[in-house]
User: Fold these one by one.
Assistant:
Number 1:
Amino acid sequence: MKDIVLDFLANNASQIWTQIWTLLSVVAGGIVTYITTSRIESKKSKRQFQQKKLEEILIPYCTCLEKVKDTAFIPYGKDESFEVFFKSLREPLVYLQAAKRAYLSQNERKKLISYKESVDALEKALNDDANHCHISCVGYLEAKLRKFPDGEGTMNIYFSFAKGADKAIKCSLLAGKPLLMSHYLTSVQFCYNDDPENFQSKTIDISKDVRSIWDGLSYSVYDLEDVGDKFNVEELEQGCELLDFMKENLTDEADNWAKYSQELKSPSIFFNLLDNLNLMIDEITKTIDTITA
């Protein structure tokens, strides 16, 4: 039996080796085809993923950051508010949601989280700083107006400010410019006795209308008698006297503002936030360029 097998192998060796090589070639070809196809499909899937990442996340994210940079101006306008200002600053934070942040790199996520913390810190610091400045301004004005004839011997002096005063304080802080709070005064109440049963006070109106008349009188546009039919002359005289006093005695108001606003936190947080925003835009732009290259 052994001899028969050996004779068969000897007589058919060529055919056997041909079949073996054919089988090996088929197997090798299949493996190569599988690997090549897998690589092509992998690259195709990667390209599709990158394209989806680019169109659905990276480009909209970059556009959002650029929009914030271009529109997050200090809200000086009458119809603008800090509520809208901070809402605008927070628009990029939607990309911290799980469905979106998965497409951002680890470094991009860290920067966005840091940006969120900066916006929150800015809002708190700005409110705290504005409150501090308001209290300081009131203290300054009170000390000055105690030297006004009606302010001598008063128990307290109360101030009423125009509606936009608090907003003006915040705008001035972020812009790094002094604010003359006396320009926002609408009335001053000199309280001589705060006992409810014997309350005594005197309120002097220095609202917009009174200031307008005061300006006219200063430039000799008209006399008090010219407006006597529309306003109480005595009250106008008191308002003009107070405005005259303030003009002469509040000459250091801007210096006083600089003194108590130089150590506040909100201005530096704001400028650092803008710098970080530019860095975030640069990084996401480079990521986009790498994908599209």
Number 2:
Amino acid sequence: MGMRIDSSYNNYPVNTSTQIDTARKTANDELSYLQDKFKDYSFVAANFKQGMRYGSNATTNVAISPQFLKKMANDPKLAEEYEKEIANMKSCDQWCRANISARGDKLVADGWAIDKDGGISRWSIGTHDDRTARVKSPTEYANELYERKKEKGRIVLKSRTNTVKNKPAARFDRKA
């Protein structure tokens, strides 16, 4: 017994007014999208100026120019490229914070700025302990170490003769 297969394509009317439009069209739409995608970031739409402070120390702070947000909203490839950059900002923040604290400094605030042309920059505000700033010259430091070791009895001065010039020379040896 043979079988017959028929295909029929019907055009059903679609009510477009009830469909959800997922396209981001404005700077506010793009900013909301980024805030939803990157939960532990703090975003602000602003043209960054030196001295401007925003966000908190607990988050990665990003100020994006409203003009650039609009460009991102209208260009999916550009948005994708900058979303990758934004995703990397958190690891860069962690690295910078670790280096700042390793120097004995304290981070007060930090953040990122994306200007109207897409240029990315990073800023930070910190405090510095002046006691760690008293750097000595290598000679002063070596002399200080020598004196400390001498006081602790780790260095013994021995006299020897320099065979080339037949002059006595000082020799520094470590005690084992």
Number 3:
Amino acid sequence: MADDAVELFRMLVEAGAQPGEDFSYDMQSRSAQISDLAFEKLKAAYPHVDWQSICERVEVDPALPVEYLNTYLGIDFVGRMLTRIEQRLEELEGEQATWYLQQVLGGVEQRTNVPLYVLLQRQLPLTKQARLERLLRQASAPCYVWMSDLIEAAGGGPEDVELSGDEAVLTQKGLALLTAVWVGEYDLLEEEVLEADLPEDSLPEEDLPAGE
């Protein structure tokens, strides 16, 4: 192990990180892998260090946030979402595919630290990787199916999101699932069931009309 890696690991231990859990070292590639939490501990413990330079030699293991997120949701969200993205890339027109990718890849990583873009690239053949790069560099046009895809991949159903033009109405479950895996600029509305819209026999007993 290189001297700089030994020094980095000493600093990680002193910052409170756990070897084998929060960080490790790949002898073959000579790269360090640390969790986001361990890196935050490191920065807090050594604020005077030039971490921009250090980061060039540190690789955050994407498996850590993936495992955490999937465990939290109780479902293989990442695997399901990667499959859904590949399907949408085949179905959507160019500018709509760009919008879809911008929302999904950016919103999920910002919310969960799961690098969907990196994971997607790893499983795409070279021709599709090239198309992915082109799509991310071109103009986009609104497409809102990304929202239902995220909710369903996270364990929801089609009934948890209703799309109408550029508006979406979500059930309480749909809203909870979406905000667990995505963040971005979009006005989210939770479906509200007004008491006046409920059938009479669903009202509390004291609100029912008195019998003759």
Number 4:
Amino acid sequence: MRALFPTVAVSLDLGATIARRNLETALRLEGCHAFQIPPRELSRRLPELGTCVVLAHDLSPADADVASTLRDAWMRFPHLPLFLYVPPLSHVGAVLTATRDVPTVVIEMQTQAASEADRLRARFRELLGRAANTNFRRILGDVLSGMPDTLRSLVERRIHSLELGGSGTSERMSLLASKIGLTLRRIEQVSRTANLPAPRDLLDSITLLWITFGAQRRGISTARFAKDVGISTERLYRMRRRLIRPRSRKTLHDPSAELAMILHQLARRLRARHGGAGEFSGLPVNRLAGM
């Protein structure tokens, strides 16, 4: 069951009792598993970060090797956020300066405020969302690259609106089409010519994939995740009934099973263009479901 929950590597000084407690409380409240790696062991255990969605580090022991290790982590895992949760001490300044230009570095100062755990929880929610969106886009890269430019732009717009949350998820097809300078009729014509699903079905399938992927990463139900990102339960159920028609209610409570089902259905719809029901533009259907 633990594999369903996002894993955050925690590499903090064992003596930083308050900081560690606040960090672990934030992760627990956000539904994450804290994977402990002592700071002095991090350099030789970098391969273990492959299953993690964030690395939290306090820069201890604040020597030259720390900056080198963090750069190595970035080179190995260029999409992994490096959350530097550092004490307000002068000796960490040199290490911060040496790592500030690493693109994935996020810096937060430790405080002893009563609300610190809540502050960290909000920060981690943002980082986890960013990491999940990056992974989702990478996985769909093969699919998007095989589509006509107009449809790829349309799908990108839908994913972006989902990432915005709230009102961003309610954009109608005609509005999305207008943002890329086309009419809805032209979009439908491109879809038919490319033997792709109707634009509405294509975008709703992508939406279902995004919701279910996010639910799986957070270890919660798809309905709860959808509600958290501003998608009504009614809309979610309408898309499910129209696109995947689950045979068992049990499937709807298991994001992994639902994800596999959505992928299978979309792969069948894309078969005419991409050739083969068992592949998703050359991508094994099980790849997304196994994330």
